[in-house]
Write a structure and sequence with these properties.
Helix content: 25-40%
CATH class of the largest domain: Alpha Beta
Number of helices: 8
Structural class: alpha+beta
Number of domains: 2
Strand content: 15-25%
Strand order of the largest sheet: 7-8-4-9
Distance between the termini: 51 Å
Shape: globular
Largest sheet: 4 strands, antiparallel
C-alpha cells in the first residue's frame, strides 16, 4: 500500500476515529488538492436509486472493504502522495489514499462504469453495492437473485474488487439503504434515528432548537404535513425572532416526539410497472405521484 519515499512533496497525516472505535488514517492534501483539476462526475441521487429498486422482493447489500485502497495510483502521481509521519519517515501511497479531492469521484466513476451493464438489478453508491430482484421470465425471485449475485461477484472477481463479508447482507426482504431501510413494501426510517429524535430534551436556547430541527428534518420525507407541524418551531429561528418557548411551541415539539417515537412511516417508491397519475397545480411549481387504485 505504501513505500518509503524520497519525494520533494510532503503532506501532514493524522488519524480520526471510526464509529466502530477503530482508526482511519487521513492526510491533509490541501496544497495538492488546490492544484488538482476538479472532477465533474455527478454523485448518484438516492431517490433515483430507490426508484430503480421499486417492485423488487429480495435484496442483497455488499460493502467494499477499504474502497479507496482498491484503486492503484498512476505511477507518475505516486510521489505527489508522499506524507510525513511522527517516525520521521516519508511514505508515498501506491493506492488511492483518503483526503484526495478527486478520490470520491474517481471511485464512484469506477463502480458506476463496472456495474452499468447490470443496472437493471444493481445500484452502486460509492462502496455500497445493492442487488435487487423480482420473479420474472419463469424464475422465482430467489432464482433470479442468485443469478444476479453470481454476475456481480464474477464482475468483482475479474476486476479484483473485494467486499467485507462481515458487512454484507444476502437474500433479505429488507436491507439498510443509505440511512434508511428499504424492502419490498417501500422505504422506512432508521429506528435508531427515530429514537434519537424522540428522546431529545426540550430546547432551552435557539441553537438547541436548530440542532434538533436539523436532526428531525431527516424524517420530513416520511411525514405528512411536516412543514405545517414544524411551523411554530421554525418561526423561532427567523431573523430577529425573540426567543420565547410558548405553549404552542411545546405542543408542536411534543407532537413531533410522540409521532416519531411510536411510528416509522413507510414511503412507497414509484414503480414503472404501474400507471401513475401526475397532478400539476397551475399556480404552484410542484407535482405528486399517485399509484393506480388497487396497486398499492
Amino acid at each position: 500500500m505504501v513505500r518509503e519515499s524520497k519525494s520533494p512533496h510532503s503532506s501532514p497525516t493524522f488519524c480520526v476515529r471510526k464509529p466502530n472505535g477503530k482508526w482511519r488514517m487521513v492526510h491533509a492534501f490541501n496544497k495538492l488538492n488546490a492544484a488538482t483539476i476538479p472532477a465533474s462526475t455527478p454523485i448518484p441521487r438516492k431517490d433515483v436509486l430507490q426508484n430503480n429498486m421499486a417492485g423488487c422482493t429480495i435484496f442483497s447489500a455488499l460493502d467494499m472493504v477499504d474502497g479507496y485502497y482498491q484503486l492503484l495510483m498512476r505511477e507518475s502521481d505516486i510521489p505527489l502522495t508522499a506524507v510525513s509521519t511522527p517516525s520521521g519517515v516519508l511514505w508515498e501511497w501506491l493506492v488511492m489514499p483518503q483526503g484526495l479531492s478527486k478520490a470520491p469521484a474517481t471511485f464512484n466513476r469506477l463502480v458506476t462504469q463496472l456495474f452499468r451493464p447490470m443496472r437493471q438489478f444493481v445500484q452502486a453508491y460509492f462502496d455500497d453495492i445493492f442487488v435487487h430482484s423480482r420473479a420474472s421470465e419463469g424464475k422465482t425471485a430467489v432464482e433470479a437473485h442468485l443469478g444476479h449475485l453470481r454476475e456481480v461477484l464474477l464482475c468483482m472477481r475479474e476486476n479484483r474488487l473485494y467486499a467485507n463479508i462481515n458487512k454484507c447482507i444476502f437474500g433479505a426482504e429488507e436491507i439498510p439503504f443509505l440511512g434508511c431501510f428499504l424492502g419490498k413494501d417501500g422505504v422506512r426510517a432508521d429506528p435508531e434515528k427515530v429514537c434519537a429524535i424522540a428522546q431529545w430534551p426540550v430546547p432551552v436556547l435557539q441553537k438547541d432548537l436548530r440542532k434538533w430541527l436539523g436532526l428531525a428534518n431527516y424524517l420530513h420525507k416520511f411525514s405528512a404535513n411536516y412543514a405545517e407541524m414544524a411551523r411554530p418551531l421554525t418561526n423561532l429561528l427567523k431573523k430577529d425572532a425573540v426567543w420565547s418557548w410558548t405553549s404552542e411551541a411545546q405542543q408542536a415539539f411534543e407532537a413531533f416526539r410522540a409521532l416519531r417515537s411510536w411510528r416509522c412511516p413507510m414511503r412507497s417508491a414509484p414503480s414503472a410497472w404501474y400507471a401513475m397519475h401526475l397532478t400539476l397545480p397551475s399556480a404552484v411549481p410542484c407535482c405528486r405521484w399517485m399509484p393506480k387504485a388497487g396497486k398499492g
